[in-house]
Amino acid sequence: MPPLSPLFSLPLNVGSLSLSSPLVLAPMAGLGHVAYREVLGRFGGFGFMVSEMCNARAVPQESRHHSPVFRWRDEEAARLVCQIFGGEPAVMADAARRIEAEGLLGVDINMGCSVSAICKKGYGAALLKDPERAVAIVRAVRQAVRCPVMVKFRSGWENSADLAVDLARRFEDAGADLLTFHPRIAPDRRSRPPRREHIRAVVDAVTIPVLGNGNAFSAEDCMTMMRETGCAGVSIGRMAIARPWIFAQLALGFSPSEDIYLRTALEMIDSIWKHFAPERAIKMYKKYLPYLAANFVYGHSLWPELARGATREEMTDNAMRVLGRMPQVAKTPNAFLFTS
Ligand SMILES: Cc1cc2nc3c(=O)[nH]c(=O)nc-3n(C[C@H](O)[C@H](O)[C@H](O)COP(=O)(O)O)c2cc1C
């Protein structure tokens, strides 16, 4: 099937790689885990996927069979970028070496997370207040590995594109292969509309590909973002949790059937309980539920129905009962249910 727009069949060139789709899974802690990615992987249509953020200090000695976040299936390794957070260049470089040695596609450096537990330590978006350190991290990671090195960052802490433009240039000079830019200031988290003109300013400042990010909820949103900003592709977050087939729909022309919500919920249950112990699995599945519920007109009342109980069997029964009666699908998901 043809893509929904020729824009979605443009290749995404990262370093020496040419990836078949410009649409990419954004990193999402607690949501973009190995089980979710297994479900997503069956649909396809993405250029690459980014893991949940992993603590760079832990990565070198982490067991991929025990860590909830530094974990992947062999089948997805070549399309999986591992995101790391931290603040010391040498520590970040060590983590990057392990990631490359494991054969993952690349390393993404987190300079966007504005959660206070992360920023308090000087990590995530706090690095944008310390440009010298931020650039030193990119340089150290670049020197440590040959695989693609990427940076995900935001507008900074003040509402202007100046810092982002300056940093983008310096990240490119330090050897980054791709930038993902979320044009909101850190205190905004995900409130207030993203500033597309800031993406344009970053795109114009560098020669490496820039992915636009923020509120890409539909094919139109992705097309507008690519057309208005000239970005090389779009990093899709919350919508990809609500509809894991969005990449296939946009890039491969996949047409979802009416029962896709029920089938996907059941696949999520299978996959989460396959990869994780029951106590963790139930928490992970419940974290996914507001995104699933957001697809429906009365999602706010379906969500508690879907979440009632504490076992795999109850979750399966809920999904079959609630989604089996084919609730009315909202044209665009109810973003109020897209919790942080
Ligand atoms: C629950 C949740 C967890 C997130 N975790 C991360 C993370 O670990 N690393 C990161 O760089 N961004 C993280 N983000 C931000 C997303 O990658 C993305 O920038 C943001 O959701 C905006 O994109 P969207 O509107 O397509 O969702 C997270 C977002 C959400 C909703």
Q: Overview of this structure, please?
A:
- There is one protein chain.
- 41% of the residues lie in helices and 15% in strands.
- The chain has 340 residues and is an alpha/beta fold.
- The chain has an 8-stranded parallel sheet. Strands 1-2 form a two-stranded antiparallel ribbon.
- β5, α2 and β6 form a beta-alpha-beta unit.
- α2 (89-101) packs parallel to α4 and α11 packs antiparallel against α12.
- The longest helix is centred in the last third of the chain and has 16 residues, at 260-275.
- It is globular.
- Bound molecules: flavin mononucleotide.
- Flavin mononucleotide is lined by residues 26-31, 52-53, 83, 110, 112-113, 152, 182, 190, 213-216, 236-239, 340.
Give the arrangement of secondary structure elements.
Layout: E1 12-14, E2 17-19, E3 23-25, H1 34-43, E4 49-55, E5 80-85, H2 89-101, E6 106-111, H3 116-119, H4 131-144, E7 149-156, H5 162-173, E8 178-185, H6 196-205, E9 210-213, H7 219-229, E10 233-236, H8 238-242, H9 246-252, H10 260-275, H11 278-293, H12 299-307, H13 312-324
Parallel strand pairs: 3-10, 4-5, 5-6, 6-7, 7-8, 8-9, 9-10
Antiparallel strand pairs: 1-2
Flavin mononucleotide binds at residues 26-31, 52-53, 83, 110, 112-113, 152, 182, 190, 213-216, 236-239, 340.
